[in-house]
Amino acid sequence: MSPLLLASASPRRLELLAQIGIVPEAVLAPEIDETALKGERPRALALRLARAKVEALACAERGRIFMLSADTVVAVGTRMVGKTDDPAEARRALTLLSGRRHRVITAIVLTTPDGRKAERLCETTVGFARLSAEQLDSYLAGNEWRGKAGCYAIQGRAASFIRAISGSYSNVVGLPLFETAQLLRGFGWHIP
Q1: How far apart (Å, rounded) are the C-alpha atoms in residues 5 and 16?
Q2: What pLDDT is stored for residue 13 in this prediction?
Q3: Catalytic choice (33, 71, 86, 114)
Q4: How far, rounded to the nearest angstrom, does the alpha carbon of residue 26 sit from its chain's CA centroid?
Q5: CATH number of the domain that 59 lies in?
Q6: Residue 47: its pLDDT value, please?
Q7: Considering the domain boundaries, does residue 178 fall inside one?
Q8: pLDDT tops 70 at residue 33
Q9: What are the φ and ψ backbone dihedral angles of 184, each rounded to 5 degrees?
Q10: C-alpha to C-alpha distance for 110 and 70, rounded to whole angstroms
């Protein structure tokens, strides 16, 4: 069986894969511009970025390994809530999510050693409780929100903000495991 390369900088994706017994031979974080194009919709952005991650590494690894990439976008309607390291931006993002439903969209791209490629989109709806100023202050005082799509981590303290979820929980963490496993199995990659 050919080895698997994970084209992602996300430690959560690596942890999620390990949860279902998958340990990539290598993890590489391709440098790509994650800025949305003018008028680009959330689903299109997620798919374009997941494709770009695979393409950025394809030349060096083509013909030898399976390559898996993913990108997650959080959206309220067509308005995207990205990653940030700025507390003021994170406050605005969490205020936007407060008391509303939003979508977490992850695109997965898998390429095979023989050049085949498959793509999947997974969408989960998440309902946030209305957040008080005290809750926002407390959450922002920690660093859990930094570098996370939507400025929160469902697997952490933000779990107390989630009033409802419809769809894949692992998608909200960063990688929809069912869809990922189905893609790999579909191309003959053995999952222990």
Answers
A1: 14
A2: 95
A3: 71
A4: 18
A5: 3.90.950.10
A6: 97
A7: yes
A8: yes
A9: -65, -45
A10: 9
For residue 190, pLDDT over 90 is answered with: no
Answer yes or no: 114 catalytic. no
Cα gap 112→68, rounded to integer Å: 9
Name the residue type at position 33: D
Cβ-contact 40, 48 below 8 angstroms: yes
192 part of a folded domain? no
pLDDT tens figures, 42-94: 999 999 999 999 988 866 556 678 999 999 999 999 899 999 999 999 999 99
Looking at residue 192, its pLDDT comes to 79
Question: What is the number of domains present in the chain?
Answer: 1
> Would you state the pLDDT for residue 59?
62
> 161 lies in a domain?
yes
CA angle 99, 43, 73 (to 5 degrees): 50
Q: What is the residue-wise DSSP string for the chain?
A: ---EEEE---HHHHHHHHHTT---SEEE------PPPTT--HHHHHHHHHHHHHHHHHHHHTTT-EEEEEEEEEEETTEEE---S-HHHHHHHHHHHTTSEEEEEEEEEEE-TTS-EEEEEEEEEEEEPPPPHHHHHHHHHSSTTTT-GGG--TTTGGGGGEEEEES-HHHHHT--HHHHHHHHHHTTPPP-
Residue 191 in domain: no
Could you list the residue range(s) of the whole structural domain that residue 149 is in? Answer: 4-186
